[in-house]
Every structure is written in structure tokens, then in C-alpha cells.
């Protein structure tokens, strides 16, 4: 190996399979974000059609820098900082409720003054919870049959995060809770405990929705209700199901081979075509064979590589950390794809590593 090649290998250390998937996702991200945003960029930024392409490139570059930095840190650092990271995430969620940026009738973002950069604090909370759960699962492996202990140490922190997210983002709160339940199941928390917590969570959501409708008319309960009812009944309301219908049109017209890059029609019609529904645009332009299947396989490979890494870990914390992170990425990606093809209610979840960053 040449000196330059050795230096690159040292810089981009880690699993080569995972790095390959990161490159694949970045490739699709740049192409899809550019194609889906070109018309908006032309109208909003004085004919500068590459505005979102450049913005996404720098966001991805920033992401790669973070990956490189974190990959060079000893995993024990994350364990020692787990409680602090969790506390910071909770504080940011609380801050979002009071001074967050409101977009599409939901307050989910904090804007860093003077930069225009927006952080969706629920995304940080997801990572913080995974790190926290990995730490406490490793610490209390021999005490997981104690219901009160598990409730206090595991479920209360999860409940706090989900409660802070719930009012503005039901789908994220439910997804985070589900991911945490899966992580706890893998960590050997008794199934009877998990079923009890799931029942409490359902009852809590129903009670919260009822209280919210009584105390405030400005809430998202009606949006939740309409989406769930439309999905369960199968009745299509042109107004309520506009996004879902346009996404289905994009996917169905893409066929096996797609319309080729830059030839999407629905990108100018489908709302959130560069974020929540970017998968539909990718399938429309690249088809089933070159769009949908490679992406789905990419996320599955990422998941299986994570499982393989976890099996090689000598201690519990890094194994739970790796499993938690890859499960989180894979589940959100699959949910996003299911929404795009109409097999799950509209949730507003982005496609990790591909959707446009803010």
C-alpha cells in the first residue's frame, strides 16, 4: 500500500462496507436533492439552480467530518458522557417548545442565530437515547428483572423525551419509543415489562390527545386523526392524501428503469420532494432496479454490518451502541419508504443520509 493510501485508510478507519454505503447514500443524495430542488432554487434564488446542490454538498461534507472525528474517539468516551448528552438533548427539546422555528404548522427546529442552520432536536434526542440506553443496559445487565429499577432507569428517560416531542411530532415520538423498546428487548429486558410499557404508552397518547383538544384549539390532534383514519379506511381524500397520492404517481410512473436523472415530473408537484418524499423522486427517475432496490439493500447492508460488528465486541456497551444506531437508521429508512409507497400513514420522517439537510 502506498503512503497516501495508508494515510487515507488511517483517516477513514472503520468498516469498509459501512463506508461504501455512506458513499452510496451520498451519491443518491446529491443527485436527488439537486433534481428535486432545481425548480425551487431557480425561482427563489435568482436562477441559481445549484443553490440546494451546493448546500447539500456542504451538509454532507460536514457529516463526513463528524463521522471521521467520532470514529477516532474511544467508545468509552460516549459511555462516560451519556448522561450529559442526554441532559443536553432534553434541554434542547424544551428550548424548542418555547423558541423553536415553526415550519409546516409544526415547531420542531432550533435555528442557530446568524447561520440560517436549523437543527431538528428530536434527531439529536434519538442519538442521545441510544447512547444512554446502551450505557444503562451494560451497567444493569444483572438487574433487569427488577420492574421498578427498569422503569426508573430505562423507561422514565425514554418517556420524558417522547413526551417533549409528542405534541409537535407524534410519529417521531412513537418511532423513538418503538426503537427504544427494540433496543431494550435486545438488551434482555423481560418481554412482560415491555408489553406493560407499550400499553401505558398507548393509554398515555390517547389521554394526551384528549387533554390537548380540550385545552387548546391550536393543536395537531386533528391532523393525526385524519391521517390514521384515511389510512385505515382506505378512502382517499384529495386534500388530505395529496402528498401520498403524488408520491404513488411518481413511483408508479418510474417503472423498472425510471425516467432517467433530471426527468422527474412530480418533483414540481409533490410537496417535500427533497426531504420527506425524496424516495419517490429517486424511484421516479431511477426506477425499481436502479433506485428502490439499491437503496433498500444499502440500508439492509448497513444493518447487517452493524450486527456483525456488535458480535465482535468484547463488552456490552459498544455492542448495544452499534446495534441501537443501525436499528435506528434502518427503521426510519424503512418507515420513510413505506410512507412513500402508501403502506404506512404519512409521518414526516426523512430518509437518513439522503434527504436534504436544513
Written description of the protein model:
- This protein has 358 residues and is mainly alpha-helical.
- The protein folds into two domains: 14-73 and 239-358, no CATH class; 83-219, no CATH class.
- The protein is built from 13 helices and three strands, in the order H-H-H-H-H-E-E-E-H-H-H-H-H-H-H-H.
- Strands 1-2-3 form a three-stranded antiparallel beta sheet.
- Strand 1 and strand 2 (106-111) form a beta hairpin.
- Helix 5 packs antiparallel against helix 6, helix 8 runs antiparallel to helix 13 (316-340) and helix 12 (278-312) runs antiparallel to helix 13.
- The longest helix has 35 residues, at 278-312.
- The radius of gyration is 21 Å and the shape is globular.
- It starts with a helix and ends in an 18-residue tail after the last helix.
- The mean pLDDT is 88.
Summarize the structure.
Helix content is 70%, strand content 3%.
Stretches where pLDDT falls below 50 for ≥5 residues?
none
- The residue fraction in helices comes out at 55-70%
Q: Structural class, from helix and strand content?
A: mainly alpha
Radius of gyration: 21 Å
Number of helices: 13
Query: Shape, please?
Result: globular
Amino acid at each position: 500500500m502506498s503512503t497516501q493510501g495508508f494515510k487515507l485508510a488511517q483517516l477513514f478507519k472503520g468498516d469498509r462496507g459501512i463506508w461504501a454505503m455512506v458513499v452510496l447514500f451520498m451519491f443518491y443524495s446529491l443527485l436527488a436533492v439537486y433534481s428535486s430542488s432545481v425548480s425551487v432554487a431557480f425561482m427563489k434564488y435568482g436562477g441559481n439552480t445549484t443553490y440546494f446542490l451546493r448546500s447539500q454538498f456542504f451538509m454532507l461534507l460536514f457529516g463526513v467530518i463528524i463521522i471521521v472525528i467520532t470514529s477516532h474517539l474511544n467508545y468509552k468516551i460516549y459511555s462516560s458522557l451519556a448522561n450529559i448528552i442526554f441532559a443536553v438533548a432534553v434541554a434542547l427539546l424544551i428550548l424548542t417548545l418555547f423558541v423553536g422555528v415553526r415550519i409546516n404548522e409544526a415547531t420542531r427546529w432550533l435555528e442557530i442565530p446568524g447561520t440560517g442552520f436549523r437543527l431538528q432536536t428530536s434527531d439529536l434526542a434519538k442519538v442521545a437515547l441510544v447512547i444512554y440506553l446502551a450505557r444503562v443496559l451494560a451497567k444493569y445487565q444483572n438487574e433487569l428483572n427488577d420492574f421498578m429499577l427498569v422503569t426508573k432507569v430505562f423507561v422514565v428517560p425514554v418517556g420524558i423525551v417522547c413526551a417533549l416531542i409528542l405534541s409537535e411530532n407524534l410519529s417521531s415520538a412513537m418511532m423513538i419509543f418503538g426503537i427504544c423498546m427494540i433496543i431494550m428487548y435486545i438488551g434482555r429486558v423481560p418481554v412482560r415489562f415491555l408489553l406493560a410499557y407499550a400499553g401505558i404508552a398507548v393509554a398515555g397518547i390517547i389521554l394526551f390527545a384528549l387533554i390537548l383538544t380540550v385545552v387548546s384549539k391550536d393543536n395537531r390532534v386533528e391532523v393525526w386523526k385524519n391521517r390514521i383514519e384515511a389510512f385505515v379506511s382506505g378512502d382517499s381524500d384529495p386534500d388530505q392524501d395529496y402528498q401520498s397520492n403524488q408520491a404513488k404517481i411518481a413511483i408508479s410512473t418510474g417503472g423498472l428503469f425510471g425516467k432517467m436523472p433530471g426527468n422527474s415530473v412530480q418533483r414540481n408537484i409533490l410537496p417535500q420532494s427533497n426531504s420527506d418524499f425524496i424516495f419517490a423522486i429517486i424511484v421516479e427517475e431511477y426506477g425499481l432496479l436502479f433506485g428502490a432496490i439499491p437503496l433498500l439493500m444499502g440500508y439492509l447492508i448497513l444493518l447487517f454490518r452493524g450486527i456483525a460488528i456488535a458480535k465482535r465486541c468484547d463488552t456490552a456497551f459498544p455492542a448495544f451502541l452499534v446495534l441501537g444506531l443501525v436499528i435506528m437508521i434502518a427503521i426510519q429508512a424503512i418507515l420513510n419508504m413505506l410512507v412513500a409507497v402508501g403502506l404506512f400513514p404519512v409521518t414526516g420522517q426523512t430518509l437518513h443520509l439522503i434527504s436534504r439537510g436544513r
